Amino acid sequence: MAENDEYSGPQINVYAYNSGSEATSLSLAAVKLDGEEYEAFFNMDLPAGKRSVEEVFFMIDFGNIPVAGEAELTFQITDPQTGEPIETLAPVTIVFGS
Q1: Which residue range is the domain that position 40 belongs to?
Q2: What is the pLDDT of residues 2-44, one digit of tens each?
Q3: pTM for this structure?
Q4: Number of domains making up the chain
Q5: Which pick of 4, 24, 75, 96 has the fewest CB atoms within 10 Å?
Q6: CB–CB of 13/22 below 8 Å?
Q7: Per the domain annotation, does 1 fall within a domain?
Q8: Residue 5 falls inside a structural domain
Q9: Angle at 8 between CA 4 and CA 9, to 5 degrees
Q10: Is residue 31 within 8 Å of residue 38, measured between CB atoms?
């Protein structure tokens, strides 16, 4: 997790690869920092056979969130044309500072 900065607050960089034959999008279905739910903004377009890098931005009062020790991100694959969910993936847990 990147430290808070004056403009964007904390961020997590996400690297993804679409090994499929059709374009998809990746979004967040749920986010927890140290066990507490937070609102975050994230959407990544993934063309077929391509890699992408985007940041998760947290929609919080920047002064009231500590840099987390653990983040749990639940991603959702969506249709890039309609935004309809295709699949919700198992949560990914990231432990910082270990």
Answers
A1: 11-95
A2: 455 555 556 789 999 999 999 999 999 999 988 888 888 899 9
A3: 0.78
A4: 1
A5: 96
A6: no
A7: no
A8: no
A9: 30
A10: yes
The partner residues of 51 in beta bridges, in order of sequence, read 17
Report the share of the chain in percent with pLDDT over 90: 52
- Residue pair 14/54 in contact by the 8 Å Cβ criterion: yes
Task: Classify residue 72 by its DSSP letter.
Answer: E
CATH code, domain with 51: 2.60.40
For β-strands 11-17 and 51-58, DSSP reports them as antiparallel
44 in a structural domain: yes
State the burial class of residue 48 (Cβ atoms within 10 Å of its Cβ: 0-12, 13-18, 19+): exposed
Token couple for 50:
């391509």
pLDDT at 1 over 70: no
Tokens of 31: 């986010």
Radius of gyration of the chain (CA): 14
Tokens of 60: 């919080």
